[in-house]
Amino acid sequence: MTIPTATWRIQFRNGMTFDRAASLVPYLKQLGISHLYASPIFTATNESTHGYDVTDANEIEPAIGGRAGFDRLAIALKSAGLGLILDIVPNHMAASLENAWWRDVIEHGEQSRYARHFDIDWSRRLTLPFLGDPFETALENGDITVKADPESGKPALAYYEAFYPLKPDTWQESEDDVLALTDRASIAELHQRQPWRLMCWRDAANELSYRRFFEITGLVGMRVEEARVFDDTHRLILELVHSGAVDGLRVDHVDGLANPQAYLTRLRQQAGPECYITVEKILGKDEQLPTTWPVSGTTGYEFMAALSDALVDGNNISALRKIYNDVLDKPVNMAAELREAKRLMVDKNFAGEFTTLLTLASAIAAEESALLPENNLRQALRELLIAFPVYRTYGTENGLPQEDGELLQQVANSVKNRTDPPDPAALNLILRILTGEIPAHTRQQATTFRIRFQQLTGPLMAKSVEDTLFFRQHMSLALNEVGAEPLPRTFSLDRFHAEMKVRLERQPDALSGTTTHDTKRGEDARARLYTLSEAPAHWATCVARWCEMNRACVVTLEDGRAPKPSVEWMLYQALAGVWPATLQPRDHAGLAALEERFLAYVQKALREAKQRTNWTAVNDDYENAVLDYARNLLSPANQDFLRDFTASLQPFIQAGLVNSLTQTVVKLTAPGVPDIYQGSETLDFSLIDPDNRREPDFAALQQMLTARKTPLDTDPAHWLSGQLNQHVIASLLQLRQARPALFRHGGYLPLSAEGAREDNLILFARLDNTEALIVIAPRLALNLPDNPDTASSASTTVALAAPLSRRRYRNILSGEVLFVTNQITLDAENSGLPLILSSE
């Protein structure tokens, strides 16, 4: 298997085609990328912006070039010596009439050859939650009629531009009569005879008859655990792998599958031992990827979380937390907040999935003649789901693996120790169902329950933490990221080094990402916001001053102040993270461009919080009040604020640029395969999607790389443009290609320093046989105007022992060759540049 030395993620669609991607190959080659890492390329719904809503898994999207365009890209990559990794989506497809399989299921119901391809509960009619109102209301309003489908000519129930095919035996003997129906009662009766029923999208959370992806009713779960479904959905994928056009696969949302290990085992067998495979999997605290999975590792969310230990000021984070509590005028109990978010998901957003589990548990209880009131089972199941600390366990028809059984027991103990524990008998029954300790005649039902439970805990965790809690609690937005821990914790370099050692041992070939299409903000926005932890009091003073300057824009609504203090805190922090490094207060065009992006983020943040507004019940008055406040922040007329904000932000911008370079260096030298998201090789201050899917200026990137100078030119303008980051990436990727064994297998050795800057450095070495690399990168680099030089005039030394000592090294960034004895002495003056030494 060829392990990538570096991947570069590209987002197809939105104007990006295969031919355009092929034109970027020389740039990627020059940058030092080994593999292009492509977003889903298979045919998806019309106007799809991401490709995860696949409609045909065996066709390459015509809108981006089709098979011919793909082949041209593959040839261009191979000719340049680059590989290709595809993002595949086995968990779900689009629940869309554009999906021929789904349309066939609608038309033929359980008799469709694809009826078991989709994860549908066929004990009831297939629900189609795509109406804006209840069926009866839509029918009464004349929105539902009988018409001939423009494509097939067959009778269909028409709802605006959607034509839902009728089951053949409900019209074939009387086609003209059916097409002539206008009477609402007759149309309702015709609808009643279908194997499906149209319903309002607002009712999906309670009544859906198919497994969906998270809360997205337009994405239906697939049953790839069935060999036939696997074969039908992977035919083209495997053809591309076997042809040599594709070198690796990234498996989207692996935790959504019924049996991830069985799926991955089959995928490995079918794809072959040479295919590089990674999985999108979020690891909880102290959780590791199962060793039995035949993959190279995850897509790297845990690496992103580990970086916060290196870049957050652990000594001051508690002060920032206290200040935020003061803003709220009450202490934040994050454990209680997490529980509340999970309770909301269980009781409302995933109510239908919960009811399915409860029905199964009640049926098993009845089979065992256990006299358990349904409410007791409800409470036990609810508490177990709320208390679950990781995305899922990996039980099968044989029960739970030992480590998962131990985890389940820990969770059960925490539930039992609550002040209001559920009924012990009910909890014990659910535990026995999950572990498989039940009579043989209920094992099939128990297996179904176990799979459904495991497929629910992941979405429940993700939506509770990433898409609810992280939009409610704003102490540090940099820490509200995919894969991050929701509960307060300490931050330390020791913990970072420990994580890297484990990464080398357990996932040396996993991707190390710092920005993805799913992150809440770009890596450089996050790097800048980490610096707030270095000066919490100063930041709080700035926010208080800005709040006072914009106080006239705060309004009082019937449901309270808008924005309230915690939302103001969020707004200033989010604006600080996204603020372009060179934007000036009188740049009207720049302010207008930023406003468009920022307001979209603010609206999404308010709705994801699900407090005073949400996606299903929009509170226009509240949203407009907060959006008006945010709009005022970027108004050219608000010059007093803009000048103050811009000036106050400068130290954080400078320290953030240092953090940006440091996290880039660490990503490229620590264990793992560095993954670079399109355009983030310079600077990425994007916000949450769709903002983070904007196309970068590829021409500018290419021109910047071509103008690269060696030795390193540290012109301040190159910091601000990101050219410095790009230069460092190109230099280190050349080294990774020259010494792959060092970066893949080389030991990870934390180093220590003594002197004025000993707490402001990340130091480690990579060592493999005769090759060595020493990395010394700055951290905690914030210098405020009232304290311009926090460092002593004394130097700092880094002690080196054999085999790192007494050998020749080349400075990767300057090209200088030097002989290092038993220590490295760092000048008191700190340029913000890392020192990267490669043995000669």
Share in helix: 40-55%
- State the distance separating the first and last CA atoms: 28 Å
Strands ordered across the widest β-sheet: 16-15-14-5-2-1-20-17
The biggest beta sheet reads: 8 strands, parallel
SS elements, strand count: 29
Separate helix tally: 29
**Spatial extent as radius of gyration:** 28 Å
- Which structural class best describes the helix and strand composition? alpha/beta
List unreliable stretches of 5+ residues.
none
What would the average pLDDT be, to the nearest integer? 96
Shape: globular
Strand content: 15-25%
SSE layout and pairings?
Elements: E1 7-10, H1 18-23, H2 25-31, E2 35-38, E3 42-44, E4 54-60, H3 66-79, E5 83-88, E6 92-94, H4 100-108, E7 126-131, H5 135-140, E8 144-148, E9 155-159, E10 162-165, H6 175-179, H7 184-192, E11 196-200, H8 204-207, E12 212-213, E13 216-221, H9 227-242, E14 248-251, H10 260-271, E15 276-279, E16 297-298, H11 301-311, H12 317-328, H13 334-349, H14 351-367, H15 374-387, H16 402-416, H17 424-435, H18 443-465, H19 493-506, E17 511-513, H20 523-530, H21 536-549, E18 555-557, E19 560-562, H22 565-578, H23 588-609, H24 620-633, H25 639-669, E20 673-677, H26 698-706, H27 716-721, H28 723-738, H29 740-745, E21 747-750, E22 753-755, E23 761-768, E24 771-778, E25 796-799, E26 807-811, E27 817-820, E28 823-826, E29 835-839
Parallel strand pairs: 1-2, 1-20, 2-5, 5-14, 7-11, 14-15, 15-16, 17-20
Antiparallel strand pairs: 3-4, 6-13, 8-9, 9-10, 12-13, 18-19, 21-23, 22-25, 23-24, 24-29, 25-28, 26-27, 26-29
Helix pairs in contact: 11-19, 13-15, 13-18, 14-15, 14-18, 15-16, 15-17, 16-17, 20-22, 20-25, 23-24, 25-28
